[in-house]
Amino acid sequence: MESNYLKESLDNFVEHPQKPLSECKAVLLPVSFEATASYMKGTKAGPKAIIDASKHLEWFDLELGKEIVKEVPIFTSETLKPKNVKGLLESVESSVKEIVSQKKFPLLFGGEHSITFPAVKACASSFDNLSVLSIDAHADLRNELNGEKYSHACVMRRCSETSKIVLAGVRSLSAEEKKFAEKSGVKIFFGNDFSVKEVVDSCSKNVYLSIDLDAFDPSIMPAVGTPEPCGLDWGTVLGLCRELFKRKTVVGADLVELSPIKGLRAPDFAAAKLAYKILGYKFLPKASERF
């Protein structure tokens, strides 16, 4: 049966010859959506920037000792371009449900962080005892922002309706969010001083990983809509991802909130490399155990 949303893209990740969906292990789903951004704009251009930058990645990964793209067949889907929140919720949930039903690993590129909720909802319907690990500078636990309950600032509040929430790297939250976290049992690891083991221990067996790129320090990742100082460094984020994939079953993931800066390609490249590493950690676990 032909998919309503999953169509083969002519602009594929790392520019490696693409195999049919049935032969692939991972599906990359770009979601160009920006409707609730509350500060700087530009996240709708994030997915294309990541894919463009990926074409300059070295296929051989020094850490894993493998050419990941040759070990992990990747299907890059055409970019979803929902016109409103309703369209976002429907298209992403349907797409991720189809990916998961075919026993593929969904990796989404945003776009604003609001794309995460429908992906989590789709995964929660297929995997029991799902937790969400959100690596983010912000808690995103508001019930609504500017009258919109599906705002990027509310995404973890919505995800908490279906799944356990663990937050790492948080450096900014409102009084409302702090109160909700304490009342509902959301586990928050603040700033950049936390134990990777404790973060992973807090997650259930099945995990959806969401990485808001503003989790990084702005010196590493300036191309985000809502930057916060004193962020995470590259090694910390990789270490957390490595440990998570080693010890838990990660059923899906996303990279969100890249807001490309004209003339500055380093953030785009870093995001593409992080996506590539995630695929390696997911499908080449024995190689990652060397570290």
TrEMBL record:
Enzyme Commission identifier(s): 3.5.3.11
InterPro entries reported for this sequence: Agmatinase-rel (IPR005925), Ureohydrolase (IPR006035), Ureohydrolase_dom_sf (IPR023696), Ureohydrolase_Mn_BS (IPR020855)
Alphabetized UniProt keyword annotations: Hydrolase, Manganese, Metal-binding
Keyword Hydrolase: yes
Enzyme class: hydrolase
A GO MF term: metal ion binding
GO biological process: putrescine biosynthetic process from arginine, via agmatine
Cofactor note: Binds 2 manganese ions per subunit.
Gene3D superfamilies: Ureohydrolase domain
Keyword Hydrolase found: yes
UniProt xrefs under SUPFAM superfamilies: Arginase/deacetylase
Cofactors required: Mn(2+)
Binding site for Mn(2+): H113, D136, H138, D140, D212, D214
Pfam families assigned to the protein according to its UniProt record, in alphabetical order: Arginase
Annotated family: Belongs to the arginase family. Agmatinase subfamily.
Protein name: Agmatinase
Species whose genome carries this gene: Candidatus Iainarchaeum sp
